[in-house]
């Protein structure tokens, strides 16, 4: 479907108006009814598995012909297991505690006024994303459970997968009696539709971009509505002198190689110069098929290590590539991460609790970890059911954005006739 700028604006305006009406209805839908609808949506995903996987195969074939990288294809690819995981995530969101109506805090003023802050939906959420078809289901489930309507615009590379998943979700929601316009998928891949979403002030309450630097930069530059940014994941693991050697090896290997194409994948390994034996850690990465790029000092550890360039320290590879450097102490590791990282997820490996606390307090990232793989940076692993993204900014929400991150609050004031003097 090709659109002109004017046609795109009209399309998004119509979708926004429908979403606004649906969001008003969703805000008052009982918890049990939302949960039932999500369970029905998950059931539809499972029932239509063959159809969804066939659509995904069309996207994979097109991606291969277009020369997509291995990392992009991995993000795009659905398997029966991954699709079942998507459905399970929708079921998991259904049973999570509903944040709408939750009292954050309350107080009674000296004049007898009772004040409380109560969670309410954001309203209409526009989500612009690339590659990952699971975002279609995750975003829909989280927005619905938190009482929000959503307008989804997925990437061209996953167009058939997104449409098949959306059709299944929509069928489940209609069976569950929820407004059919609560979740809408933009029917065109034209860039004009993205521009129209970014300009839809008064119809869309917040935009959440999930993708590469170019997408996020465009959204932040052009948006006339608030943006909750999900930036790249330049994640680090720092091995302290007091790290257990086996833990250091296993954590670094898992952080890089479990799935190289996710935003929680380690991109830079920092090794303290006083760590006893760095060679087995680096060798484990190389033996697993990872390209290791290092400083001259690091390259002396293994002939297979290639030279690191200046840009390697600020690159999100999303591939089996890792940059490695030596640092002098916790403060140097913190300085390197805060300077070169993307404030996403960073970890320290050590048995020294004081060093760990210094790292956890000093690293300015949305997620900081001690003796754990950065691959745990995931809403499901955090017990949130699913996530819309990992927010790396400072305002509104940070880290995995799930149900509470998709709400705001209002003040509720109850009086007994007080007037202000």
Give the end-to-end Cα distance, rounded to a whole number of Å. Answer: 62 Å
* Helix segment tally: 14
Q: Strand share of the residues?
A: 15-25%
Count of the domains: 2
Structural class: alpha/beta
Q: Could you name the CATH class of the largest domain? A: Alpha Beta
Q: What Rg, in angstroms, do the CA atoms define? A: 23 Å
| Residue share in helix | 40-55%
Task: Look up the CATH topology of the largest domain.
Answer: Aldehyde Dehydrogenase, Chain A, domain 1
Give the biggest sheet. Answer: 7 strands, parallel
Q: Look at the structure and give the mean pLDDT.
A: 94
**Strands in their spatial order, largest beta sheet:** 10-9-11-8-7-12-13
- Given as residue ranges, the uncertain stretches (5+ residues, pLDDT < 50) are none
Level-2 CATH architecture of the largest domain: 3-Layer(aba) Sandwich
């Amino acid at each position: 479907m090709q659109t002109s700028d004017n046609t795109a604006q009209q399309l998004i305006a119509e979708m926004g108006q429908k979403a606004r009406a649906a969001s008003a209805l969703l805000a008052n839908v009982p918890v049990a009814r939302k949960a039932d609808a999500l369970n029905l949506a998950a059931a539809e995903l499972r029932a239509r598995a063959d159809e969804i996987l066939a659509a995904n195969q069309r996207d994979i074939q097109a991606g291969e012909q277009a020369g997509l990288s291995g990392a992009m294809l991995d993000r795009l690819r659905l398997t029966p297991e991954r699709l079942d995981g998507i459905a399970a995530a929708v079921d998991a969101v259904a049973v999570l505690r509903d944040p709408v109506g939750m009292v954050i805090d309350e107080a009674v003023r000296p004049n007898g006024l009772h004040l409380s802050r109560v969670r309410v939906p954001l309203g209409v959420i526009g989500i612009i994303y690339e590659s990952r078809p699971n975002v279609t289901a995750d975003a829909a489930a989280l927005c619905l459970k938190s009482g929000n309507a959503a307008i989804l615009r997925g990437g061209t590379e996953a167009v058939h997968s997104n449409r098949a998943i959306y059709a299944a979700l929509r069928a489940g929601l209609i069976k569950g009696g929820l407004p059919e316009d609560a979740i809408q998928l933009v029917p065109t891949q034209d860039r004009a539709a993205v521009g129209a979403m970014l300009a839809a002030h008064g119809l869309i309450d917040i935009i959440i971009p999930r993708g590469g630097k170019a997408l996020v930069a465009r959204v932040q530059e052009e948006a006339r509505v608030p943006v909750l940014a999900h930036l790249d994941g330049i994640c680090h693991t720092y091995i302290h002198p007091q790290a257990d050697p086996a833990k250091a090896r296993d954590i670094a290997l898992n952080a890089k190689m479990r799935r190289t194409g996710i935003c929680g994948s380690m991109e830079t390994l920092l090794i303290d110069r006083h760590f006893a034996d760095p060679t087995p850690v680096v060798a484990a990465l190389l033996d697993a098929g990872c390209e290791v790029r290092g400083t001259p000092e690091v390259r002396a550890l293994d002939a297979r290590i290639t030279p690191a360039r200046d840009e390697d320290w600020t690159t999100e590879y999303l591939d089996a590539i890792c940059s490695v450097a030596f640092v002098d102490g916790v403060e140097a590791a913190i300085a390197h991460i805060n300077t070169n990282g993307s404030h996403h997820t960073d970890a320290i490996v050590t048995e020294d609790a004081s060093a760990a606390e210094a790292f956890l307090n000093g690293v300015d990232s949305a997620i900081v970890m001690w003796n754990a793989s950065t691959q745990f940076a995931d809403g499901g692993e955090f017990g949130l059911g699913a996530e819309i993204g990992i927010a790396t900014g400072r305002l509104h929400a940070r880290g995995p954005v799930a149900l509470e991150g998709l709400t705001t609050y209002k003040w509720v004031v109850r009086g007994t006739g007080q007037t202000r003097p």
